[in-house]
Each structure stands twice: as C-alpha cells, then as structure tokens.
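_Full entry_
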Amino acid sequence: MKRIFLTVFISLLTVTVARSQQKMAAEGAAKSFRVLALFENGGHHLQFTNAAQLWLDSLAVQKNFIIDYITKTDTINETVLNSYQLFLQLDYPPYGWTEKAQHAFIKYIEQGRGGWIGLHHASLLGNFDGYNMWPWFYHFMGGIQFKSYIPTFAGAQVHIEDTSHPCVKGVPKTFSIEKEEWYTYDKNPRPNVHVIAWVDEKSYVPDSPVKMGDHPVIWTNDHYPAKNIYIFMGHSPALFKNEAYTILLENAILWASHK
C-alpha cells in the first residue's frame, strides 16, 4: 500500500513540476524577442564589435531576449528575417549585400515586420569597393551620400534635440563622446528624416576642418512602417563605458524590437 501511495505521489509530483516548467517556459517565451545582428568580421572596427557583443550578450540575459550574429548577408531571406523582431546593423555597410538579402530587408522595413537599428557604417553610402550604391538604402537613410570623415578622430558634445523620443529616455540632454570619426555627407538628411540628436562641431577636440554645419547624428525615418533609428556613433570600444551611449542603445533595442 505504501509503495502504491509513493508511486502515485511521485507521479503527481512529476506532473506538477512538468506543468510548472511549461508555464515558466511559456511566460519566458512571451516576454522574449529575437535580434539578428550583422557585423563585419575584420578591419579596424572589430574592437568595437567585440566590445559590443559582450555588452549585447549581457543585456540579452538581463532583458530576456535572444541575439544571433552573422557576418555576411548570404543567409538573409524573408523566412529568416520573419523570425526576428529586430535587425541590428551593428557594423556593416549598405553595400555588398546579396540581391536576395536586399529584397528581404526591403519587405521587412516597408511592411513593418520588425524594427531596425543601424550604427556607424550604415550611412556609408556611395560607390565603395567596386559596389554601386544601393538606391533604396540611400532613400531610407534620408537621401545622403558619404562625403568625408575625421580619420584622426575627435571628441565632441552631442545634443539631444527630441527629448521626448523613447530612445533617449534617461540620456543627458548633452553628453560627451570621447573618440569618433564624425562622418560628413553631401547634404543634410534633416529635410527627409526626424532628427533626434546632433553633434556640435565647435566642440571637436582636437578641432577639425571636416565639418558640415548642422550635423545630425541620430535620426529616424518616419516614412517607413518599421521602427527604425540610425545612431552614427559606433567606432570605439570605449563607447560601452559611456553610460549615455549604453542607455541610448538599450532604449533603442527595447523600442525598435516592439511593434
């Protein structure tokens, strides 16, 4: 009799534990989202990318999301993108993409299937490395082409313009960037995008003649259904020791990943 009772008790306990685990897994799955991060596996930006991966992996654990990394666009297609709520162009230019990847990404953005965050190289628009400029991405980024940059780097002050945007919640209205290349473009993207922040070129340390006047560095393009944000800063690994930058990027990930 005792043996029968013990067997029944163990069976009930097993079922209870299994159901509890299933419930916890379901609750966890309901909270989580998936991020696909694309980066260049080489070059002098790799130190930034390595630091970014450590920070992103830690954030993924804290905020209960999954992040996968790819270094080429060969595997990108509609089916792949549809399984992710956010596409993070961590450090990758808008050229050299496969045709299939281009078409899939266009649908992903134009149909609002998921969000997008682009850092640094995402605005490297023009004819580079034997590739012609991607016209769709040119319009997506506000109709700009890369013109020049500060190869010796400079520190600067970044000013938040739209303090009400969710991506800058908790970010100081003015914050410092210690080291960056500060791209300039053939024209200002402002007429075609919603500017969130700009860099004060007068604050460059050391000063540089490479300037464009009104100089947006964070913006979103409201003409597309997908949540999207471009954050120019993305060269130095020291950015992940900059609290303003990490708050900004965390906000952007949480904002852009949810429809």
